[in-house]
Specification:
Maf protein; 206 residues; alpha+beta
Length: 206
């Protein structure tokens, strides 16, 4: 069985990843998906890239050096708010400090947009996923979902900035969407499906 190790320890993210990757079949067999923590990999990673794609590849290559024989995936994702010049962007996870709760982070962003009305509250979630194959070859896929910043936190289903990110076609935050709804439209869902397509093409050629 082919194994995928995802360079994250985020339980919420792994739940999404497993759901989206559940139907992936390579070489005629289902694929095992584990987090780097579940694989026993603990390596310090310095995310000093200048883009989501660069940071994702830094993480993927760092974990790949300890994951012989496995496909390694890593994502770097974040929230870009147009009125704030694209903040928090690639620093989304570190915004106001990595140990700061997202309730505080979300409220801070809402406070910074006081007096700003639609459509100037436009924003997007961006996700870049890097893949390193067992033979060392690599690729990245990037996707986004457009929306706007709400006026308060809403919903309990998501994590991170989900409670303040409103999806126009649903009129709800991503934290108010069901898992199935979110996976269909989310930045991570779209990027993961692109990765699945590339993996299928890669293994079909072998």
């Amino acid at each position: 069985m082919q194994e995928i190790i995802f360079a994250t320890g985020n339980a919420g993210k792994m739940k999404e990843i497993r759901s989206i990757m559940a139907d992936l079949v390579l070489n005629g067999e289902p694929v095992s998906v584990r987090s780097m923590k579940e694989a026993g990999i603990d390596v310090p990673i310095l995310e000093d890239g200048k883009s989501f794609a660069e940071n994702a590849m830094i993480k993927a290559r760092a974990v790949a050096s300890f994951a012989k024989g496995a496909i390694v995936l890593a994502d770097d994702s974040g929230l870009e708010i147009d009125h704030l010049g694209g903040e928090p962007g690639i620093y989304s996870a570190r915004y106001l400090g990595e140990d700061t709760s997202y309730h505080i982070k979300n409220q801070n962003l809402i406070d910074r947009l006081v007096g700003v009305r639609d459509p100037e509250r436009s924003a997007r979630f961006v996700c870049a996923i890097a893949c390193v194959l067992p033979d060392g070859t690599s690729f990245t896929k990037e996707a986004a979902i457009e929306g706007f910043i709400g006026y308060e936190e809403k919903g309990e289903n998501g994590f991170g900035y989900d409670p303040i990110f409103m999806v126009p076609q649903y009129g709800r935050s991503t934290a108010e969407l069901s898992e199935e709804e979110k996976n269909q439209i989310s930045h991570r869902g779209k990027a993961l499906r692109a990765v699945k397509e590339e993996l299928n093409e890669n293994f079909d050629r072998k």
